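Hi team,

Below is the intake form for Lytic murein transglycosylase from Bradyrhizobium ontarionense. Please confirm the fields before the structure is written into the shared record.

FORM ID: S-0412
PROTEIN: Lytic murein transglycosylase
ORGANISM: Bradyrhizobium ontarionense
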Amino acid sequence: MLIFRSLIVAASLAFASPALAARCGGDFNTFIASFSAEAQSAGVSGGVVSQSLSGVTLDPAVLSFDRRQRYTFNKSFEQYVSTRVGPGRINGGRAMLQRHAALLSRIEQQYGVPRQILIAIWGLETDFGKGDMGKLPVIRTLATLAHDCRRTELFQTELMAALKIVERGDLTLRDLIGAFAGEIGQTQFLPSSYIKYGVDFDGDGRVDLRHSTADVLASTANLLHTNGFKMGASYEEGSPNFEAMREWNRAVIYRKTIGYFADQLMGR
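The structure came back. Fields below:
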C-alpha cells in the first residue's frame, strides 16, 4: 500500500499481549536475546527462533521511514481517489472479476463478502498482486520497530506473529518479505492479521498470502466477514459494512475509495 499502514496497525493494538516484556531501547542484541527466550516460552521452536533471529540487525532505514511518516491523509477524497482509481485499474479489476469468477463465487458463498469489494482491495493494495508487496525482510523490520520504544508492545506482538507464520510453515524466511511496517502479501496483512484471519482456501496445507490468489482473496473476505460485513447490504459511508471495513483500514477516505472502486467495477 502506498501510505503507511499505521491505520491498520492501530487496530492490532487490541491483540498486544502484556506477556511480551522484552525491554525496548538499549543494546539491540540484548533485546533480541530476551525476545528470543520469550518466543520459545510462547511455543515457537528453538530452531525457528534461531533461524529467524540469529544475526538480525537494526535497520536504520525503517526507523527513518517511520519517523518521517505522516499518519493522516492530506488530500480530499476527490483528489485521493483520482490518483488511485483510473480507467486502467478499473479495466484490470474487471478482468480479474472474469478470470476468478468461480473462485469469487465460492468465497461469496462461504464468507458473504461481495466480489467487487475483494477485487477493489486487491487492486488498491498491490495492483492485483502485480505491484509492490514490499522488499524488506519482515523479521528485521519488526525487530527494529519492536526495539524502538515508541510502540514496542505492538511490534513485539507483530514480531511474535511473524515467527509463528514461519513455525506454521506458511512462508519461509526467504518469502517473509514486506513493507515498512511488516505488511505481507498481495493484500498487505500484518502478521497478527495473517495469523488471525488467514485461510488455506486452496487446500495445500498452508496459508500463502504472497502466491496463492485463493488464499489471498478468501483471507481478505474472512477478515471482513469476521468483523461484521454483510452480503447484499450497503457499504456506503455510515453503513454497518463501512464500519466493518474499519478493521481493514481506519481511514475514512481509504474506505470510501474501496467502495467507489467496487462500484466502478460493477458499472455503477
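SUMMARY LINE: The CA atoms of residues 133 and 185 lie 6 Å apart.

Thanks, M.
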